[in-house]
Amino acid sequence: MKPLEPLLFQQAHVFERLNQARATLDGLVSLSSELGFARWSNKDDRTAYQRPEHHTLSVYLSGGYQTKRQLGSQLIDGGAPGKICLMPAGHESQWQVDGELAFVHLYFSEQSLRDEIERVWDKDARDLSLQELTFADDPAISSLVQQWLLSLNWSDKADFLALQQVGQLLLNHIAKQYSSRPLAPLELKSGLAPFQLQRCKDYIEAHLAQNISLQDLAALVGLSEYHFARMFKHSCGLSPHRYVSERRVALAKRLLQLADLSLSEIAYQSGFSSQAHFSARFKQLTGYSPKAYREALA
Predict the structure, then answer these.
(1) Neighbouring residues of 22: CB distance < 8 A, sequence distance ≥ 6
(2) What positions does the domain HTH araC/xylS-type occupy (predicted)?
């Protein structure tokens, strides 16, 4: 196992088993000590999971038509792009991968799921259990992963807030749809109070060059991450990630007026991990590349 992998992945049984098999790790991001994504590809492999200590959501991205799960002497098929598998902590499973397969895993601990249910629904989650799913259909999960998660840059701090939002939405969806205890749909009654919204905006402006996490923003106003994201959008008209992106681009516009700053320096000071990602996001929001915008100013 690579020494630079975050502790979350070093302790995840499913991650470790795939790392020891033929699977190729195509990306990973740790959202917290108990929540993270990994993207994998695999071909012609056999893998078994023995009572992992964490939950795993698997979402197929491509291939998988010849992937099967072995239950006793029976082989269960049905793999395809968009299919999901939910493997609760403590389960045992054997998998037969023939042909090619690409998929995303969300690893999350029992404690992270309990904490989320207690924060969001204000319910005791100590006796909660998760359903086990094999090759199931869930358009909400598939859409979140295929259309949002895969569009983000997992290695750029500018997208970290959005990655946390995706993780939060998936965790809440799993808790609501696949737990042993029915959970009522959540209703948004109001947004943030004006002083709460201003406190968040002030914090964002002061930390644009740094990682801004959903947990930090939610803690400023004493809310769960899920409620905060919904209430912030209700009050501001933008998701936290979109608002932070627009403020970073606004800062970059001011910095582009300084001829002595290189584009790479501006990217760093605006909170982007690379010049390439800075240029892509700047053009997405303004219609100009940073270079073209600077030339137009001149």
Answers:
(1) 42, 43, 44, 45
(2) 198-296
What are the residue ranges of helices labelled H in 144-224? 160-178, 194-206, 214-220
Query: In this predicted structure, what is the pLDDT of residue 187?
Result: 67
Sign of CA dihedral 84, 90, 92, 95: positive
Confidence of residue 1 (pLDDT cuts 50, 70, 90): very low
How far, in Å, CA of 293 to CA of 169, rounded?
36
Q: Model pTM?
A: 0.82
Secondary structure (3-state) at 298: coil
Give the whole-angstrom CA distance, residue 62 versus residue 41: 9
Topology at the third CATH level for domain 243-297? Arc Repressor Mutant, subunit A (1.10.10)
Tokens of 285: 């929001």
pLDDT digits (tens, 9 = 90+) for 105-122: 999 999 889 888 888 887
Under DSSP, is residue 18 helix (H, G, I), strand (E, B) or coil?
helix
Would you say 282 and 249 are in contact if contact means Cβ atoms under 8 Å apart? yes
**167 and 161 Cβ atoms separated by less than 8 Å:** no
User: Tokens 């840059």 sit at which residue?
Assistant: 153
Q: Which amino acid is at 182?
A: P
Query: What's the pLDDT tens digit per position in 75-94?
Result: 999 999 999 999 999 999 99
Name the residue ranges covered by the structural domains of the chain. Answer: 7-178, 194-237, 243-297
Q: 3-state class of 3 per DSSP?
A: coil
